[in-house]
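Practice record 12: protein with manganese (II) ion.
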Amino acid sequence: MRQDATEAEVRGVEAAIEARGFKAHPIPGAQRTAIGITGNKGAFEAPVFEALPGVLEVIPVSHAYKLVSREVKPDDTVVTIGGVPIGGETLAIVAGPCAVESLEQMLTVARGVKAAGAHILRGGAFKPRTSPYSFQGLGEEGLKILAAAREETGLPVVTEAMDLEGLDLVERYADAIQIGARNMQNFSLLKRAGRARKPVILKRGMSATLEEFLMSAEYILSEGNYQVILCERGVRTFSDFSRNTLDLAIVPAVKKISHLPIFVDPSHGTGRRDKVAPLSRASVAVGADGLMIEVHHDPDRALSDGPQSITPAMFEALVKDLRQIAPVLGRRL
Ligand code: PEP
Ligand code: MN
């Protein structure tokens, strides 16, 4: 739309798009509003839209991903989770245990990470485990514990939804919905997340290409939820000294083509406690908008992902380092 286009003109164009059976996605920007159009099959009557009041130009988007691309929205998106901005100047740190194990465990870790400077609390209530005999999470009870931890610390909470039923529950209790690596291409779950009214943290599948990752985000945006944060968490390679290979090069690659913020999860990305801090520092250096870190007060007795969980003391030391690194890169913490 033109820079001086009125609200009524924007609504008029949306109505014209919808009258043709397409979907309109108004995307406010710093300079002007863009309106993304999806749902058209084949050629598009550009001249019809170019003639509407307030329209500056009609631009066909060349990539398969549309709404996530900078072609549609040049400026960075800032997503807000419970009042915490993600994607702006300030880095955001999500911390907490892999799984919610008990009220006492969750509160102990929550107090520790809050004191050290975390902005958002994590903890899985529904755990995608390789073995059906491993701890599967506390389910709704775990969500209630997360809500209690938020109540006490004031930190917003994020937790994973593994299926449609779980997503209804997570949407009710949490401040943001995590879609895990194993579900990155669970398209019905992505569509449901797109209809949710809470921000979504979408983790990269362990063998997903950049294009597949962005297309999965596109599923969520195409349903009308524009509050999406990507999260690199390591991919499968031949490397045998870590659980996964943290693909930090994807951060600048994403930034180049997408306006969405991106986190890095160095816990799953390395699988090793001693590698979490160095890779966190590197993540900030390559331009990540935030980190997701697994912290446990007694990692050797954690019910899941103990070997990659750092202690609250290690987390505190890491945040101190990041506070020094951030300003060098024009960021704040
Ligand atoms: C997690 O965050 O605990 C998790 C299961 O992550 P991922 O989906 O990246 O394996
Ligand atoms: Mn985990």
